[in-house]
Structures are given as structure tokens and as C-alpha cells.
Amino acid sequence: MSVRPVQTNQITEAGNIKSSPGSLIWIMAANAADSSNRYFTLNNATAGSGTEICRIQVKAADTKFFAFPPGFYFSTGIRVGVSEGDLTITGAYE
């Protein structure tokens, strides 16, 4: 059995989890807003919106964890767009 080295990056606004090609291993989204749902998008890009892969809703005062074994490959970069503040995104990549 081998262990794959991964790195993590945490963002609180639109930005890159990884600014070059790579695989997303998992992502965790925490919504600190008490009464409002928040959304984030995963984009195959390093700037702007790029190619949107998916849009995910996180309910008010909730945290969601998404695993992508063996890794979800992004050919340009792993970029996250967020709908509003109060959303913290942490992603693990290789």
C-alpha cells in the first residue's frame, strides 16, 4: 500500500485551490451564515469562472464534505467561485 502525498488550501472567497493541473481529492465547505444558504462552484480554471464543473449548495450553519476517490482531475487548475461571504472552502489536492 502506498500513501499519496496531498496538500490542502483554504479560501474564504473566490480563488484557486491549485493554480495548475491536478487532482482534487476532497473538499469541505463550511457555511457560517445562520439563516442563508450559500453556493460554490468548482471550475477548471485559474482565473475568472473558466469551465464550470459543478455548483453546490451548503445550507445555513452547515458543513459539507465531498470525497473524490481516486481524485477528480482538473486539466487547467482547481478554482472555486463563491456566492457570498460566510463560506470557507478547504480542498485537498495532488
List the helices and strands and how they pair.
Elements lengths: L6 E5 L3 E4 L3 E10 L6 E7 L6 E8 L4 E12 L3 E5 L4 E7 L1
Antiparallel strand pairs: 1-8, 2-7, 3-6, 3-8, 4-5, 4-7
Share of residues in strands: over 45%
Which fold name is given in CATH as the topology? Jelly Rolls
Count of helical stretches: 0
- What's the domain count? 1
Largest sheet: 4 strands, antiparallel
Q: Strands of the biggest beta sheet: in what spatial order?
A: 1-8-3-6
Identify the CATH architecture.
Sandwich
Keywords:
8 strands, 4-stranded antiparallel beta sheet, mainly beta, Jelly Rolls, globular, about 90 residues, single chain
Summarize this structure briefly.
The protein is mostly beta strands and 94 residues long. 0% of the residues lie in helices and 62% in strands.
What does this structure look like?
Helix content is 0%, strand content 62%. The protein has no helices and 8 strands. The chain has strands at residues 7-11, 15-18, 22-31, 38-44, 51-58, 63-74, 78-82, 87-93. A hairpin with a 6-residue loop joins strand 4 and strand 5 (51-58). The chain is globular. 24% of the residues are buried.
